[in-house]
Task: inverse folding
């Protein structure tokens, strides 16, 4: 049985195919059309999924979408009538930056889009799945037989925060909060207030570590902690419940925390301190919710999903400051994963099939053959060497130990917003200067943003105050004090590191590379950041070559192919092609 999940009419569009309960592909459209957080119909992702596995639309039994339009329409009606006439401002397109109100007609437009491409006859049945149900359904591929599930995002079709209990092949909703009592929406609005774009919340999380508690007590009045583990956003401070992003904050907020920063304005202590207050209060709210969940429900396992679950600092605090023993966050916690979640919900919750699969790796993206890699190298005019695996690992480990910067492109692309070892830029975690070099020569991003340590799973507790696997880079625990100077490039200013644990069974080549580096240096940790330059993570050999030629990384590795040269003609061609 093939179930096709499609996300469209909102940000992070994409497709997933579930074959007899096993994820076959999860393709994000932004990786194909090169537009971050794209809202476009995922036509390239869908075509690649069908072509790569020899499928046709007639092979699909059911199509699932991660929104329930009846629920969504009822919610729209409720929020528009709640504060008339001011709430009518939410109808303006400028008020919304993610899901459009027009998405209420999504099923019809989806059928039309599919019909035009594949024919209107015999379109598969379309099933709508509640948005938070789709998020919660990642429980079905978690390592837990039973768990509490917490969903926190900007908003779904009914609410922004909800809790579930999961056991076997069933999930049950426990409660949900009001639509506008949303930590995700608050974080996004403050992100924009600080001069960053929506979806740059991770930048604000990094900035928060550079700030101090100037506004902390005042900001605690914005997010109120209620009895029973619930929260409320103080409506005296916000305007997004009536004006959306056109006027997200009331005069009281601006009076206490200052006017919005323009993107070109310099960052000051004021902005750093506001970021600190936001992050600290959101952490306090999450801990408040989680502690009550832990008190009321017996499971010692917690699954987190929704965009707020990308807050790796808060996630690490849950393990440190609550009595949950195990916390699992999927690599696609945000809306990039709800296309898969909708298929999982239908397969298990609706059809009642047993669980037979655990997601222990993130590699469900596209892959390329050696012939395709060679074709891309020849087209770019790049000289290359083809090495045996042992020679390749030894050579690249020596490069890393010498603080060279390596573009590492292997196998199937990882899914989600973070590079996890197949589309990564790697370097030497022991070199403090390497962070500045990568920023200056490749990334061109804010200097305060950290890079990630990738550590052999057996060594994680030796370097971090942390003792569980985290293969998807979803936690930022503290480094042990005696290790900060050993891997300074991987330590954030607050002494944390957004780590990735690497297991041999999940990614044998990546594990072996770090193992070789450890033999040379005595350190089982390498620096990892996404393979890109202010663009979506590279998806194809051509894009990896382009990024290599447009930057100053030292080495490019595509599968078994090792590249260090940069012919001037190839560099000029890459710059012109990217500009076009």
Result:
């Amino acid at each position: 049985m093939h179930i096709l999940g499609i996300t469209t009419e909102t940000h992070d569009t994409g497709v997933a195919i579930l074959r007899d309960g096993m994820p076959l592909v999860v393709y994000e459209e932004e990786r194909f059309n090169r537009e971050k957080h794209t809202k476009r119909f995922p036509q390239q992702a869908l075509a690649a999924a069908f072509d790569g596995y020899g499928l046709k639309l007639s092979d699909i039994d059911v199509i699932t979408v991660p929104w329930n339009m009846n629920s969504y329409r009822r919610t729209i009606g409720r929020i528009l009538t709640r504060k008339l006439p001011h709430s009518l401002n939410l109808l303006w397109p400028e008020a919304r930056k993610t899901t459009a109100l027009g998405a209420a007609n999504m099923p019809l437009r989806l059928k039309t889009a599919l019909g035009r491409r594949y024919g209107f006859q015999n379109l598969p049945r379309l099933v709508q799945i509640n948005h938070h149900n789709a998020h919660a359904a990642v429980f079905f591929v978690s390592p837990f037989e039973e768990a509490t599930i917490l969903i926190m995002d900007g908003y779904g079709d009914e609410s922004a925060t909800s809790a579930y209990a999961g056991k076997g092949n069933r999930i049950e909703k426990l409660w949900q909060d009001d639509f506008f009592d949303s930590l995700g929406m608050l974080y996004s609005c403050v992100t924009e207030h600080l001069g960053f774009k929506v979806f740059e919340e991770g930048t604000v999380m990094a900035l928060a570590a550079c700030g101090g508690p100037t506004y902390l007590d005042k900001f605690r009045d914005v997010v109120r902690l209620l009895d029973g583990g619930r929260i409320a956003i103080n409506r005296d401070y916000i305007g997004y419940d009536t004006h959306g992003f056109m006027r997200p904050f009331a005069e009281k907020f601006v009076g206490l925390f200052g006017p919005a920063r323009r993107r070109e304005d310099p960052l000051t202590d004021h902005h750093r301190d506001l970021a600190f207050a936001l992050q600290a209060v959101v952490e306090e709210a999450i801990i408040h919710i989680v502690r009550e969940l832990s008190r009321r429900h017996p499971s010692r396992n917690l699954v987190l999903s929704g965009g707020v679950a990308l807050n790796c600092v808060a996630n690490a605090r849950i393990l440190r400051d609550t009595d949950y023993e195990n916390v699992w966050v999927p690599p696609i916690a945000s809306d990039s994963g709800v296309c898969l979640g909708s298929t999982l919900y239908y397969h298990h919750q609706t059809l009642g099939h047993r669980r037979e699969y655990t997601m222990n790796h993130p590699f469900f993206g596209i892959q390329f053959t050696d012939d395709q890699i060679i074709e891309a190298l020849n087209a770019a005019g790049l000289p290359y060497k083809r090495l045996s695996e042992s020679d390749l690992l030894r050579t690249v480990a020596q490069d890393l130990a010498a603080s060279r910067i390596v573009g590492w492109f292997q196998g199937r692309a990882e899914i989600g917003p973070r590079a996890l070892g197949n589309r990564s830029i790697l370097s030497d975690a022991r070199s403090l200067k390497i962070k500045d070099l990568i920023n200056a020569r490749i990334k061109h991003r804010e200097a305060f943003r950290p890079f990630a340590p990738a550590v052999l799973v057996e060594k994680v507790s030796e370097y971090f105050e942390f003792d569980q696997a985290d293969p998807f880079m979803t936690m930022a625990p503290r480094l042990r004090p005696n290790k900060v100077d050993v891997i300074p490039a991987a330590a954030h200013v607050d002494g944390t590191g957004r780590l990735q644990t690497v297991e041999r069974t999940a990614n044998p080549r990546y594990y072996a590379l770090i193992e070789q580096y450890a033999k040379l240096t005595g350190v089982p940790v390498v620096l990892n950041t996404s393979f890109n330059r202010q663009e979506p993570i590279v998806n194809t050999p051509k894009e990896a070559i382009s990024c290599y030629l447009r930057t100053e990384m030292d080495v490019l590795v595509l599968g078994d192919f090792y590249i260090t040269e940069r012919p001037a003609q190839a560099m000029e061609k890459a710059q012109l092609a990217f500009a076009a």
